[in-house]
Amino acid sequence: MIRAKITLSAFFVCILLFFCGSVYAVTYQEVQEDPINLSLNLKYAKEQRELGKTKNAMVTLERLLLLYPNDLDLTVYYLDLLIELGSVSKASEVVNQLLEKDTTNQILFEELELIANDLDLQQKTPSAPSPLSINLTSTVNWGYESNTNSVSTHNKQYLGNVLSDYPAGTVRSDRTYGANLTLLTSYILSEQHLFSASIGFNKTDQERDNNRMSDVNPYNISYTFSQPRYSINNYASYSRTDNFSSNNSFQRTGGISTNFNINDRLSASAGGSISFTKNNQTEKYSTARLSDSRSQQASLGTNYSLTQDDLLGASLSYNYKKARARYNGFIGRSFQLSYRRNLPLNQSLSLGFSRTANKYHASDALYLATKVRKDFVSSTSLGVGGPIRESTWSYAINLTWNNTESNIINYTTSGQTVGLSLTKQLSLF
After folding, report:
1. DSSP letter (8 states) at residue 283
2. So what's the pLDDT on residue 94?
3. pLDDT band at residue 259, thresholds of 50, 70 and 90?
4. How many CB atoms lie within 10 A of CB 272?
5. Quick check: 26 and 47 in contact, CB under 8 A?
6. Alpha-carbon distance 427 to 184, whole Å?
7. CA–CA separation, 260 vs 270, rounded Å?
8. What's the confidence (pLDDT) of residue 77?
9. Domains of the chain as residue ranges with CATH
10. Above 50 in pLDDT, residue 262?
11. How many separate helices (H) and strands (E) can be counted in the chain?
12. 212-236 burial, b for 16+ CB within 10 Å, e for fewer?
């Protein structure tokens, strides 16, 4: 083994301690949602290596190197894994690249020369790691909602401009059961270019309210272009929702997002998207097309690392929804705050708060024709999660408190939700 011939210097030891010191457990779902986040994806690679899943770690590191080819610490960590796996030719290439790039760090330079001398440069070059990766993620979840039918906190409601009392026992709680299966394929096109596609299946069942049972089938594609300090992601998606007790719907979305690393602690992001929703109108659901809509979204955000284990986030977003029936459309503005803390045993804690203001385009004569609806929605969340011991399973527990204040009492609601999910990821290729 190459490893037996090489004694890593104090420099390498410090690098390894830096990357292995974090205790934040990163799930594959988080990687899916943010594939260009250097810190997040590097922690995922490290944790996969510690679990013995070196293939997952290698694929993730090679993808990161395409996104951040000039990151010295990332390259050194990649080299250490190559040496551990006995990849002689590839390790030699990386050593030579480092020697060409960095000659100012004398300790690193001397160590690289020692490693280069120990590598057998005459061996046949092994097959390069495949640019293709295929992963399967399965999730099961359980949830509880205290106000599943969104009943107003008032004891009255408007019906055709007339106040009417709610019948007793209107508010209902319910339990939700669901399952998700996602197949994700990623392909490294060339340096700085990454393509990915996914197919998913989501099933949701309600214990009491059959009206909310549904199947959702999403299809997604994305393309990422990256430079050392910034990256741009273009994506498109299509989903079909089959509702068991109402009409089916279809949604198409396209968007772009960018992330800019200002320094080691501070990053900024921006994005925009447009989506189209179409409802399947039938004889039974003769008014379904009134909910057809076009939505435009824009957002700005920033993240700041207080310490290696503490991350703060903030964002602003704008949403314009134009619906076939004007009372279903609105202009929305919101802001979000978040905090994440790494805990012992690879667990993590997250806190979040959001406030949204929605102003609708027209009044709804079914409830109150004299007022145009205005809602203020507040949401507070608490979550904890991480791997289950050293297995490939991970869990997440989330608690959410929602409150809506509206100028039409029908829509003034409050409720709590509890969610538990178990996730397992399989690397197929």
Report:
1. S
2. 78
3. very high
4. 14
5. yes
6. 10
7. 9
8. 83
9. 2-118 (1.25.40.10), 132-427 (2.40.160.40)
10. yes
11. 8, 16
12. bbbebebebebebbbeeebbebebe
